[in-house]
Amino acid sequence: MRHRKAHRKLGRDSEHRISLLRNLATSLINSREERIVTTVSKAKELRPFIERAITLSRHAANLEEGNGSEARGVHLRRQAAAYFHAGNFGRGSVTGRRGQPTPPRTAGVAALKRLFDEFGERFKDRPGGYTRIIKLGRRVGDGAELAIIELLGNPREAAADEASKKRAKGGSKKKAAESKAAAEARDDSETEE
């Protein structure tokens, strides 16, 4: 029986499992489409992991100016950094040399920046449920069940909503034009009589 055992082990020890979830979270936040393909069990484990990080960024976006909010924002950002791998390891030693460019920001730092700049504002009024899991079927190689985990309100979803609104708006214009033409035809037939 699995009473009170909340998480999956995913065939890994604790450090490896946490590292896996951090890598998946970084990939999800940094991906342009805001979606990744992984196995169903990994997606189900990633969902609460990434939603906690998004909630921290949402709390930071809801902070009001003044009265220690800046310190609270820094605290929330540092808490959220635990959900991504630390970035720019050894950066200080490289920047001290003359003529050498500084190394680029790593994926973890970029993910943290994007999380607080973009996603905090997007999900500011949403009280949870920031992700969606869509099952894809089984992988050919090993038969593992695959799934897409994506953030709600991603660019693909926004473009699809906009296109459906245009279709609906265009369809109503077309219907309005047809009904107007039909009304004019009726008026013409009435005037002929």
Helix content percent band: 55-70%
- Total helical segments: 6
- Overall 3D form: extended
Biggest β-sheet description: 3 strands, antiparallel
Q: How many individual β-strands? A: 3
Distance linking N and C termini: 85 Å
- Give me the secondary-structure category: mainly alpha
CATH superfamily descriptor of the largest domain: Ribosomal protein L17
Strand order of the largest sheet: 1-3-2
**What is the fold named in CATH at topology level of the largest domain?**
50s Ribosomal Protein L17, Chain: A
Our Rg estimate from Cα atoms comes to 25 Å
CATH architecture descriptor of the largest domain? Alpha-Beta Complex
Please supply descriptive tags for the structure shown above.
50s Ribosomal Protein L17, Chain: A; 6 helices; mainly alpha; 193 residues; three-stranded antiparallel sheet; 2 domains
What does this entry look like structurally?
The termini are far apart. Strand 2 and strand 3 form a beta hairpin. This protein has helices at residues 14-30, 40-61, 69-81, 91-95, 107-122, 155-192; strands at residues 35-39, 131-138, 145-151. The protein has 2 domains: 14-152, 50s Ribosomal Protein L17, Chain: A (Alpha-Beta Complex), CATH 3.90.1030.10; 154-193. 18% of the residues are buried. The protein contains 6 helices and 3 strands; from the N terminus they run H-E-H-H-H-H-E-E-H. The longest helix has 38 residues, at 155-192. It has a 3-stranded antiparallel beta sheet, covered by helices on one side. With 193 residues, it is mainly alpha-helical.
